[in-house]
Amino acid sequence: MKRLIGNSQISVSAMGLGCWAIGGAFFYDGKPDGYGEVDDKVSIRAIRSAVDCGVNFFDTADCYGTGHSESVLGEALQGIRDKVVIGTKFGHTYDEATKHVTGSDGSKDYMRWALDQSLRRLRTDYIDLYTLHIGADDAQLAEIIEQLESFKKSGLIRAYCWSTGDAEQVKQFVRVSKGDAVMHTVNLFDHSPEILRECEANNFASIDIFPLAMGMLSGKYKADSIISADEVRGSGHSWVAYFKDGKPVPEYLDKLAAVREILTSGGRTLAQGSLAWIWAKSPVTIPIPGFKTVEQAVENAKAMEFGPLTAGQRREIDAILSVS
User: Please, where are the H alpha helices in the chain?
Assistant: First the structure.
């Protein structure tokens, strides 16, 4: 399965892998923002295994592990750079020594510094998809786009994107830029039809974060599951929707139970069925589930062998969950 990143004509596997979790422990707003400790050797094996299964798109950010995710991804892709598409993000400032995200900066000088750091850690001389990771007003956005276009002309990036769940920001981005993608939440429980419509109407790719609802849609979590306070799902971030007070939110467990049979039809796992729903939802969607193990990366990648759910299955799920 292949999809295009907007008007750039960059061809990618219909599913990429998100590399937040492999960055290891770091902090945002003083709270743990990673997915706990990781084994870099396992992460590298997982990335290589995903490539063997047909995945060619990997998305990270400079702030994930305050640079560590990029470094691990760069090591894993040595020798096969020409066979893969790499996305990374900029905009958050961070302290590598203390592992803390410290603020945000969208200035041109900072963008140039951030890009240089990402290129070094990723061991490459260009980024395929460079993504703005913070909010911006109209004036700031204009300056950021100007710099991104300069990077593009210089061959330092091939395409660019904005990570935002704000439909009005998306409309502005589409109007004033020559970008190619929007990165936003899309999963069975949570997505923005307005953003998807905007992407479809303007041939922008929808790069889908949280496609498995931070692991909720894997089926791993039960009502009595306890999430460690040392990782993002249990550390008390107000924006984490699917887990509260160290536990899965019961409403989401109930919703998953209601559509489990449809998702697992045809031999799919719950995770594979959840990804298949995203592909069935729109032709521009490209989910990027995270991973910490070889098994997770391979299971996600093998979802492509099944392809999208049928239109009928998608409509049935949407009706059960009252999805628009």
Answer: 40-52, 68-76, 108-122, 138-153, 167-176, 193-201, 250-263, 270-281, 294-301, 303-306, 311-321
Which residues have CB under 8 Å from 76's CB, separation 6+? 43, 44, 47, 48
Q: Strand 190-191 to strand 205-209: parallel, antiparallel, or no bridges (unpaired)?
A: unpaired
Does residue 232 lie in a domain region? no
Number of domains in the chain: 1
Q: What is the CATH number of the domain that holds 291?
A: 3.20.20.100
pLDDT of 69-103, one tens digit each?
A: 999 999 999 999 999 999 999 999 999 999 999 99
- Mean pLDDT of all residues in 218-230: 95
Q: pTM for the whole thing?
A: 0.97
Contact 115, 151 (CB under 8 A): yes
Q: What is the crossing angle of helices 294-301 and 270-281, to 10°?
A: 40
pLDDT number for residue 129: 98
Is residue 230 in some structural domain? no
Domain housing 290: 2-219+266-321
